[in-house]
């Protein structure tokens, strides 16, 4: 399959995603000028649409399963179904990224889509027929292992669709769309399950993913040589020391973020304010969207003064403020959540942009697959540790997870490549 040739020394140039480089365009003026240039790039709107559609199925899955499985099996079975899918997804993400680097994109995308739809159909049929739970778990495992690598491949496509100076805006848009679907996906799934049919959200996930695959498969990745590196080196994305340090910072940041997201509903329950649980998480997401889009649109001088290490330190400060506010009425915590969330999206943007700059040539999608796996591992560790801590202590004890994890992430991040928006050459 055609592969990218951009590596650490040529991270965001024209040889990132198409057969011919896009010509340089004048830098648009105004705060939103970068986003206007981003969305007018060839194929950019299709990429944005594919990104949005592909994120709904994963963010609708948990609540859909929780509302579908328990009437037939149990809550524990529903939790195991969700865990099976997510673990299978995390374990196979690097493999699916590796396949996307070495074989034609359409072949990989459509093969994964067919298997994913088969697993989805198996899950629905197993629950509907009341088959042994092993059939449900096996179907969930197939879904996770064959989840179409649209999200993994999107950042590679963005690198070829826009110039290097707009990579920050592209990654900020990806982070903002993830936060948007984190808010709307569960709400949509819950509404469809309770007002129409518990199967409808999962049924809808199939066409949404199929449309995302069709949109992405219809685009060409520009500037890529036809040859493919099919070496047996499975650890190639992990060999650069600076990239390993970014991976370490990323898993620590994800653990810190998961601790925050898990503790907020526990805090609401402990203070008889369960109704605030969803609002707290929505506040974090809204702040994250605003922070990511705002920082990416800021002048280059501001972006240079806020490298990832500074953003990670800002998350530590935001977590400390949030913990202090937890000793006040629950309504005040709601006001602080967007402020704490303001650095989340921009931190994700900076981390993914830096990874794109450091990725070895020929394994761009595989590296993004590792980022997907690392993200899920970090969230699992942070969620489990903070839930256990908050259950037996005051909720503000989540700082014992958040502050050390985010602080350590800031310390291990490679300073030499910390700039999230390198100047165009």
Walkthrough of the structure:
Helix 3 (75-102) runs antiparallel to helix 15 (364-392), helix 4 packs antiparallel against helix 5 and helix 12 (308-325) packs antiparallel against helix 16. This protein starts with 32 loop residues before the first helix and ends in a 13-residue tail after the last helix. The protein is 71% helix and 0% strand. It is mainly α.
Structural class designation: mainly alpha
How many runs of DSSP E, i.e. beta strands? Answer: 0
What's the end-to-end separation, in Å? 28 Å
Average pLDDT confidence is 79
* Principal-axes shape call: globular
Using only C-alpha atoms, the radius of gyration works out to 21 Å
Proportion of residues in β-strands: under 5%
List the defining traits of the structure above.
425 residues; globular; 16 helices; mainly alpha
Layout: helices, strands, pairs:
Blueprint: H1 33-40, H2 44-68, H3 75-102, H4 105-129, H5 133-145, H6 150-161, H7 167-195, H8 200-217, H9 241-270, H10 277-297, H11 300-304, H12 308-325, H13 330-341, H14 344-358, H15 364-392, H16 399-412
Can you summarize this structure?
This protein has 16 helices and no strands.
């Amino acid at each position: 399959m055609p592969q990218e040739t951009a590596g650490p020394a040529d991270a965001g140039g024209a040889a990132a995603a198409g057969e011919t480089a896009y010509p340089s365009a004048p830098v648009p003026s105004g705060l939103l000028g970068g986003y206007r240039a981003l969305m007018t790039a060839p194929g950019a709107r299709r990429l944005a649409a594919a990104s949005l559609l592909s994120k709904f199925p994963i963010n609708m899955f948990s609540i859909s399963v929780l509302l579908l499985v328990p009437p037939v099996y149990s809550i524990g079975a529903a939790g195991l179904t969700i865990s099976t899918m997510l673990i299978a997804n995390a374990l196979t993400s690097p493999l699916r990224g590796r396949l996307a680097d070495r074989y034609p994109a359409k072949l990989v995308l459509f093969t994964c889509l067919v298997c994913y739809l088969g697993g989805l159909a198996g899950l629905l049929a197993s629950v509907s027929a009341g088959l042994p739970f092993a059939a449900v778990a096996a179907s969930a495992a197939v879904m996770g292992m064959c989840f179409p690598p649209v999200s993994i491949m999107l950042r590679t496509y963005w690198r070829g669709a826009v110039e290097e100076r707009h990579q920050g805006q592209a990654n900020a848009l990806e982070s903002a769309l993830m936060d948007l679907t984190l808010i709307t996906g569960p709400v949509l799934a819950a509404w469809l399950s309770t007002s129409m049919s518990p199967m409808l959200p999962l049924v809808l996930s199939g066409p949404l993913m199929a449309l995302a695959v069709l949109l992405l498969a219809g685009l060409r990745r520009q500037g890529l040589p036809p040859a493919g590196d099919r070496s047996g080196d499975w650890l190639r994305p992990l060999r650069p020391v600076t990239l390993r340090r970014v991976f370490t910072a990323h898993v620590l940041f994800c653990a810190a973020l998961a601790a925050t997201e898990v503790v907020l509903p526990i805090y609401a329950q402990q203070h008889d304010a369960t109704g605030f649980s969803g609002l707290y998480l929505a506040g974090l997401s809204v702040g994250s969207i605003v922070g990511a889009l705002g920082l990416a649109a800021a002048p280059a001088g501001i972006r240079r003064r806020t490298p990832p290490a500074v953003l990670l330190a800002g998350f530590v400060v935001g977590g400390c403020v949030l913990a202090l506010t937890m000793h006040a009425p629950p309504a005040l915590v709601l006001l602080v959540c967007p402020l704490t969330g303001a650095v989340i999206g921009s931190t994700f943007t900076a981390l993914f942009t830096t990874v794109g700059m450091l990725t070895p040539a020929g394994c761009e999608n595989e590296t993004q697959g590792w980022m997907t796996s690392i993200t899920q591992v970090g969230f699992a560790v942070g969620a489990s540790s903070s839930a256990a801590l908050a259950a037996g202590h005051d909720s503000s004890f989540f700082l014992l997870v958040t502050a050390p994890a985010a602080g350590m992430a800031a310390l291990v991040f490679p300073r030499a490549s910390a700039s999230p928006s390198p100047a165009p050459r």
